[in-house]
Amino acid sequence: MQTVTLTIDGREVSVPEGNTILQAAQKLGIDIPTLCHMEGINEIGACRVCVVEIEGYGNLEPSCIYKAANGMVVKTNSKKARLARRINTELLLSDHAKDCLVCARNNECELQDLAAKLNIDDYRFEGAKNIPEIDDSSPSIYRDMGKCINCRKCIAVCAKVQGVHALGAAERGFETVVVPAQHYNLGEISCVTCGQCVVACPTGALTEVSHINKVVRAINDDKKHVVIQTAPAIRVSIGEEFGMEPGTNVQGRLVAALRQVGFDKVFDTDFTADLTIMEEGYELIDRVQNNGVLPMITSCSPGWIKFIEHNYPELLDHLSTCKSPQQMFGALAKTYYAEKEGIDPKDIFSVSLMPCTAKKYEAVRPEMFSSGYQDVDAVLTTREAAKLIKSTGIDLKNMEDEDYDNPLGISTGAGVIFGATGGVMEAALRTAYEVLTGEELEKLDFEDLRGTEGVKYASVPVGDFTVNVAVAHSLVKAKELMDKIANGEIGDIHFIEVMACPGGCINGGGQPRSKDPDIVNKRIKGIYDVDKKMTLRKSHENPAVKKLYEEFLGEPIGHKSHELLHTHYKKREK
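The structure assignment produced for this chain is given below.
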């Protein structure tokens, strides 16, 4: 590999040829601020806050896109660079909403942080302003274009990472605006509500639709019995919002904190993740044995479901009919749980704590009222839950561990690993093997299905039968698989897992924002560490799930299961 050597702020550094000045500075630990840059995704030099001075050059150059060269002498902190950086930031602020105190991104805004770092304490420039556009048409994502700085991160992530192309730039010059296709509202187009744009946005231009006040009102209503379920990925990510290392398991502390917030019962979505494996596993067995539609594809990621409804409606029959664990839990909370506790379902307010913005959309789908009520009344993202906990003065870091409530709080390691890409498939194989063979699986870890590389394939002997599976995460990779199925190119595959977000739910659109390039792997490691320490690691061994079938459901994929736990999907316009 050829390298180039340059000097930055008086220090010599060698980097691979083709690296930018920004990358070279980062190698030296020199901080050059950026607002629009996402390495490998959005490298356009739009915001101009990363400009540096290069000896012998007449103009300042954006370090995020300017290539390092042999003998180059760079000053990142010269008077000229500092002045330009400050002016460029002030110009961004001049056309920006001035409601920081009530903005969803207050104290978590990259523009706000940069202004503070540059000691900007006044609005020097006043002039023409764009008329802010508010778009509240989506049940998941809120757009406030008065806070957009045209960094194009959302456009790049939507196109390159997800392949959805829901957003683009329109008009020119000062009138340039980021908008959904053909100036429609977000809720009117084929946006899948995955929220990756929300994570990428440096300001409050894109945020999740907040359910915090709705949840607080329910908690304060003495007539309401408020229950909350927490998704598998939350336990190793919410700690980041309280200064803990990514991947730290805070499950017990989270349960304690949510009780102090005021929830009447704290349950575990892992319980219905185990239930999903039972229903999905038996559905797969039925399809294989009775010439059903194969490959069967998982249906627990609502962003993925909306993507296939818009883009591959001819392949809808391949989807499992199982609802997601969130929605299975919601249906059971207002039927099975209500019956056991003697509570009128109309008085139960069911909340989910999810790493995902698309879960807000999923909760209001018309198919998700099988209990006779809206099965899940409100969805909090990880970020929202952290805000709610902090607002009550609770320090999660110093809570004492408490256990989930029963009966919907008992789970297995198989339910936990739902949070990582490949986890649903691995959990399904643990159960399918033992159900079909009647033998105990010697090795529970399916290493070939783990990791964050692209599409993964594996063949697993199950008795005399070999199950061929595939795993994809991010909608770009899902599209790759769907095109192969549509074109008849895919081999003898029986089961496919698809997660809409890169890395799976662990990197969902509602998770804590991080600039750590290894954040996904750290969270995934945390998930698998939890699984290894569990006493029960197979869904079919969950005693609470067994009791649920005995007392209420009867049998997997039976009549009552189909009424409450299964659904259908529909073709949508592209």
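Interim note for the steering committee: DSSP finds 19 helices and 18 strands in the chain. The chain has a mean pLDDT of 95.
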